[in-house]
Structures are given as structure tokens and as C-alpha cells.
Amino acid sequence: MRYVVGYSANARGHDAVNLAVSLARGRGASLDLVLVVPEVQQFGAAHAPKAGFENLLNEQARQWLDEALALVPADVPAQAHIRSGDSDAHALIEAAEELGADVLVIGATSSGLFKRFTIGSVASALLHASTVPVALAPHGYYRQEALTRISCGLGTRAGAEKLLDFAIGMAANRAVPLRVVSLLALDGGDSTAATAAREYAEKTVAAAAPVSPSGVQLAAKTEVVVAQGRSIEEAVDGLDWEDGEVLVIGSSRLAQGRSIFLGSTASRILRALPVPMLVVPSGYELKHQNHPTSNDTSGEAPQ
Amino acid sequence: MSTEHAAAKASHDTHAGLSAKGLKAGSVGLIGAVVIGVSCIAPAYTLTAALGPTVAEVGVQLPAIFLVGFIPMLLVAFGYRELNNAMPDAGTSFTWASRAFGPWIGWMGGWGLIAATIIVLSNLAAVAVDFFYLMLAQLFGNPELADLTLNLPLNIATTLVFIALACWISYRGMETTKGVQYVLVAFQLFVLGWFAVAAFSHVANGTAFDATAISPEWFNPFAVESFSAFAAGVSLSIFIYWGWDVTLTMNEETRNPEKTPGRAATVTVLVIVIIYMTVALATLSYAGIGQEGLGAGNPENQGSIFAVLAGPVMGPFAILMSLSILSSSAASLQSTFVSPARTLLAMGHYKALPTKFGRISPTFKSPSYATIAAAIAAAGFYVITRTTSENALWDTITALGMMICFYYGITALACVWFFRSEAFSGAQAFFFKFLAPLLGGVILLVMFVKTAYDSMDPAYGSGSSVGGIGLVFILGMGVILLGVVLMLVMAKIRPEFFKGKVLPTGY
Predict the structure, then answer these.
(1) Is there a domain that residue B20 lies in?
(2) Which of A95, A113, B41, B280 is packed most tightly, with the most Cβ within 10 A?
(3) What DSSP character marks residue B217?
(4) Which residues of chain B does A57 touch, with a Cβ-Cβ cutoff of 8 Å?
(5) Is B1 domain-assigned?
């Protein structure tokens, strides 16, 4: 398992490293810290040759990456890479594809003033083009211990089963409980919709469980929750979230091919969410299914 | 797991190599390289800024001086290319002069480069502001709007806003893209061509302001009345070719590093010379060099000639000229910010300035402190010239010409001295590493000394003076003296660089 971390030498980069460590510890994955330096162009720089500036930039990037490696605890293997590219997002996606990454981890933003998540431009570009799942660390994410629970945001549209398979596999591989969450924006008292959502979720979970090889024991541990609120944000706020939890959601049906497109509901969830979010491209299949953790130190129970 | 970390550190070097390989090598073709060269020169801007002051010095011999001015630029550029190939470095003149002559002259070479780019930033912003208001006036058919630029507080405020915007864009690491640059360059050449054709047709129709017949004497540099005028003219025309050298230093990014840079440099200079000659001849034959009205010799017109002439010559289409100069000077303003910022960054990196100048923004990966310092210096320079000079643009350009002569002169001689042991190893080395830069450097330093001496006269340039001494002298020498003072302060508080430990001389 390899997780690519989009690193920058600021608070956002630290958030991303912490989340990556946390994700890696439950799976014995290794980290690839990637720092993107801009391609120095001859267009748009008068009276300034570019060669020397590139050297200074690369020297600084190496220094930053050494600092970044120092943030990674000794039990998580990590490598550092410098990439150059016009667009941070494209360079990261390229690196993730080239390194065969299973997840791309980034800090969502460095300064969400009022809300926990406001999407930075790099994150937003990634969420529109990545072909691998993208993990977004909220501002100020400090936790480095392994995950304690996976939540899966379940919608009713096509592809929900695939997403649930992914989440079930993820929880099974990490031996942590799974919670299936249905978020509803309703005016108070519409209990039929809530019941319908619950029935649908339970049915989907039941249908998915036998298919997933490790899901048999897991189905018992799976909890189904319907969260209601006047808005999606309120529904998110109404749920209890563990510190070591991650919310897995699918990309919108607007996504092209097998890439991600964050729908409006997902964007709104993101704005209220206090825990990291993992956005899975539509049609993405979890690799390495049923490979239990090996070299982690978190003491998870063997399968 | 510590072995993993060690391995990761060891793999750094290979990844640094990777990142260099990851560059889109060879993406710039001949046309791209020419566009880069022309956009660095920004002909519409340089002509409007330098044509008037040059006419004031050399009169109708303007075409001759424009041609002669290219010779020292060419000679120096050969040396520049040799140094850039041997020591590619963000500090350019600073680093090269330090490696050749030691820390003190190196520091002043770097200071000259920074000062020149700071001065041109303030001039670019001011020209952009003039044409901004002129364009508003043309757009709304209200000539009073154009006069807003004469309102001192408003003018200073607008200029500072332009500088701040360009600084912000540069700080965010945003750059003018290739496509935009192509459009800007094509538009500039198109509008300048239109201006020339329109001016000549006015001359042919007898509707020119002061129709003057073109004479071969205009091309005779020896017809310039005095050596002072000649020196002043040449140091101004160095400015109009400033930036051309970039075409020679492009190597690995061109598709054919063997041939493209040389061809691009040749094509660029042909394009530039043709457009300069055409516009210079058109301006002189349409407006003459009279001191009245639209005459190119009228001190009122010297600061920005097209602001005055575009209307009468191009009629309602003058707005295209405003748009072209506004867009190209705004683009140049932003792209020129990169230069002092990188030089300051390199000087901070080599411990010749406080460490904070060497900072790179972790978010935008651009020089952070250095970019802001350059903006503050450019803003400060503009406020001082605007409030002390009767014609800030004119005096700024004259001081700028001097400053370019100063640092190019030092750079060229640094080339001669640095390569002295190879100078006689072959005909090619002799010419490119010794003779050409030696001649170019000496010519430029002579022009610098002569212009500096002459500019002490209170009547020099626009005729502004402080305490009986010409303002151009005070600006030029003041900036150099300030550099000396700062250098001595730095030597006191951070002596490492000045002991020659950071950038030792020689190979």
C-alpha cells in the first residue's frame, strides 16, 4: 500500500502528513511525500534567467522535505519526492498514478475561518480530476494514531453499492467498526422519508455483506444511522464523530469516467465535517482487499 | 524503520535529478523564443518612454542613435551568455561579478541590477497609469478623464495600486501564460505598425503636424552635435534593447539548443530594429523635432510620446495604442517583478543580505520577502521622483539608462576577468570571452561616467534640480551611494560574505 501525500511546508501540509500517518498505521502502508515546485517559465519573467532560480527552489524543496520526513514517526516508512509542474493538482495526480498510490492525501485548506473545511484551490482541482481516492485533512488535524471507525455516507443513487463495498473492505482490512450514514435534509417530522432511508440503507448493507468476503462478521458490527436536519450541515452536526473517524463518500454522478467530481451535497457535508473525508471516484474498486494489517503498532485484532 | 528514512534521504538526489528531467525540455521553438524576446523588450512601452528623451538629446539623429545603441548591447550580451553558460545562477550579475572581482564589486553589481529593475518598475507603473486614464478618456469621449493623471495625489495613489497589484500577482507565483504573451506581442507590433502607416499617410496627404523630409543625415551618428548628447543618447538606447539578451541565454528549454537561441536573438533584433526604425522615422516625419505643439522636441511630450501623438495620428483608433501600451506595460510590470525578487533572493541566499531576503513562500513557492521589498522600493522611488521632478517619467528613464550602463558594464568586465586564463586559447574564446565584452563593458562604463558627469548640470534631462545639482545626477548617484552605505552596513552586521567565504573568486 502506498499513500501519496501532497506536501507543502505550511499548516496544510502538516495536516496532510498527520492524516496520512493515521491512515497508514491501520494498514501498514508506506508514504510518499510529494512536494510540487512550479515549473519556472521563460514566458512571464523579464530580465531574469531561470536556471539559477530553479536550483534555489529545488534546494529549498529538499530542505522542506527533510523537515516533512521528520514529522513522520519511525514506524511508518516514508519517501520524499520533488515534482515540477504548472499545476499542483495535475502533478500530484500524475505522481499518484505513477507511484501506484492507493490514496492521495492532502490538507484541505490552511485557513478555514469559520468552518472547519473550506476547500483550497489545489484540493478543489484534485477533487475534480483524481482517479484515486482523495483524503482531505481538516484544518489543524493533529492525530497520528490509527483510525477507530469508518463512516460511509450512503446516497440512494447508482453506485452506492460499490461505495459500500469499498467502505466494508476498508473497515474489514483495518478491523474497525463501520457505520453507514444516511444524511437527510428535511423539515422536522417527516418520518416516512427517514424510515425509507433507513430501510434502504439496511437493505443495501445486507445485500453487500455476503458479497464481500470478509463482510460476514462485519455485518454484525455495522451500524446504520439516519441523520436528519433542516440542512445537510445540521444533519452532519447532529451526528457524533469520533476523533479517529473518517467519512467515506462517493464522487458525484457528474464525474467523467472513473474520476472524482464532488457533488453539491458532498461539498456541503465537507463544510460542516469535523473529521477527515475520503472521496472515492465512481467505479473505483478497492485493491488489496482482505489483506490484514501486518506491521502496524496499533494492536488491532487479527481477522 | 530508520533505514527507510535514511534510504529516503539518499533518494533525494535522484529525485532532484528526476525533477530536472521532468521539465518540459525543448518546449520553446523559434517563434516562442522570439515572442519571449520581444515581450521582454516591450517595444510599445520602451518607445513611448524613451523616444522623447532621446530626441531631446540627439534630435533628428534618433534613428542613428537607435542603431548605434545596439552595438554595446550586442557586445555585452556575448559576455553575458558566456557567464550564464559557465555559472547559471539566480543572482546573475551579482554572482558573476563576485566570482570575478570579489564581494565588494559583486555586491555593487547586484545593487545596480536591482536598482535598474526597481526604477523600471516604477516607470512601467507610471506609464500604465497614464494610459489607463487616457484610455478611460477615449472610452467615454471625455478628455477631462485623461487629465486625472496630472492630479498628483491621485496619480501617486493609482500608481501605488498598480505596483501593489503586480506585486501580489507575482507573490502568488502567477505568471503571464504563453498564449497571453503571444497576443500581447502581436497586438503591440500591429498597433505600432498602424501608427507608422497612419503617420506616413498624414505626411503624404499634407495633414502632418510638421512634415519633415527624411534625410540620410538622420542615420549618421557623427552628426550628433556633441559627445555629451551622443553618450546620453546611447545610454538611453541601451534601455530600448534591454531584455534582448534573454534570447541568447535560453538553452535547454529550446527545441534545438544548438541553433534556436542564436536564430531567435537574430530574428528578435531584426523585428525590433525594423519596428524602431519605422516608428522613429514616422514620428520624426510627422511631428518634426520642434519644441511647440506636437513636436517631438516639446518638453511636454517627452515623458510619453504616444500619449500625445496617438490621438492626432490615429484618430479614433488611438484607443488601440492606449490598450496596447496599457496591456503590455501591465504585463511587463508583473513579469519584471520577478527580476529584482530573484536577485534579492540570491543575495539573501549567499548571505550578502539579511536571511529573510532568501525566503521562499511555502505556499506559492515564490520569493516572498524579496518580492514585497522590491514593491516597497519601487513605490518609494516613484513617490520621490514624482514629488521632486517636473517630469518624473523623463528623468526616471534617463537615470535608468545610466543604471543599466553601470551594471552591464560591470558584468561585461566580470566576464573578461573571469575568463582571463582562457582568453587566448582560440579565436572564438578570444572574441566572445575577451574582446566583445571588453569593448562593450568599456563603452558602457564610459557612457555611464560621461552621463553622470553631465547630469550634474541643473538643466540636464527635464531640467529639474535640487540644490543646484541636476535631479538625474541625484537620482542616479543617490541610488548608487545608497548601495554603498547599505553594503558597508551589511559588511558590519554580516561579514561572512564580504570576507569572500561564500562566493570565492575564480573557478
Answers:
(1) no
(2) B41
(3) G
(4) 360, 365
(5) no
How many other β-carbons are positioned within 10 Å of the β-carbon of residue A133? 24
pTM of structure: 0.86
Tell me, yes or no, if B250 comes closer than 8 A to chain A by beta carbon. yes
User: Is residue A18 located within the same domain as residue A117?
Assistant: yes
Q: Is residue A290 part of a domain?
A: no
Q: B21 lies in a domain?
A: no
Is the torsion defined by CA of B64, B65, B69, B71 positive or negative? positive
Alpha helices in B389-435 (DSSP H): 392-418, 427-429
pLDDT at B10 over 50: no
In angstroms, the CA B149 to CA A86 distance is 38
Determine, for residues B4 and A41 on separate chains, whether the beta-carbon distance falls below 8 Å.
no
Strands A178-185 and A103-107, sheet pairing: unpaired
Best residue in A42, A57, A84 to probe B by mutation, most B CBs within 10 Å? A42
Residue A25 has pLDDT above 70, yes or no: yes
Mind listing the pLDDT tens digit for each residue in B159-193?
999 999 999 999 988 877 788 889 999 999 999 99
Q: What residues pair up with A151 in beta bridges, in sequence order?
A: A179, A247
Residue B480 C-alpha cell reads as 548608487
- Residue A66 sits in a domain whose CATH number is 3.40.50.620
- Rounded CA-CA distance B465/B390 in Å is 9
- Give the helix/strand (H/E) hosting B469: strand B469-470
- Who's near A20: CB < 8 A, 6+ residues apart? A3, A5, A31, A105, A135
AA letter at A3:
Y
Does the residue B19 lie in any domain?
Answer: no
Closest CA to A105 of A173, A171, A174, A12: A12
Does residue A215 share a domain with residue A168?
A: yes
The number of folded domains in chain B is 1
Q: Do the strands A149-153 and A134-137 form a parallel or antiparallel pair, or are they unpaired?
A: unpaired
* Interchain contact, A44 vs B19, CB within 8 Å: no
pLDDT tens track for A231-278: 888 888 888 999 999 999 887 655 555 555 566 677 778 778 889 999
ipTM over 0.90: no
Cell reading at A221: 458490527
Decide if A210 touches B, using CB distance below 8 A.
no
pLDDT band at B23 (very low <50, low <70, confident <90, very high): very low
Contacts of A82 in chain B (CB under 8 A): 15-16, 18-19
Three-state DSSP string of chain A: CEEEEEECCCHHHHHHHHHHHHHHHCCCCEEEEEEEEECCCCCCCCCCCCHHHHHHHHHHHHHHHHHHHHHCCCCCCEEEEEEEECCHHHHHHHHHHHCCCCEEEEECCCCCCCCCCCCCHHHHHHHCCCCCCEEEECCCCCCCCCCCEEEEECCCCCCHHHHHHHHHHHHHHHCCCEEEEEEEECCCCCHHHHHHHHHHHHHHHHHHHHHCCCHHHHHHHCEEEEEEECCHHHHHHHCCCCCCEEEEEECCCCCCCCCCCCCHHHHHHHHHCCCCEEEECCCCCCCCCCCCCCCCCCCCCCC
Mean pLDDT across chain A: 78
**Residue in B236, B240, B221, B245 with CA at minimum distance from that of residue B402:** B236
Amino acid letter at B240?
A: I
Give B345's contacts in chain A (Cβ within 8 Å): 53, 56
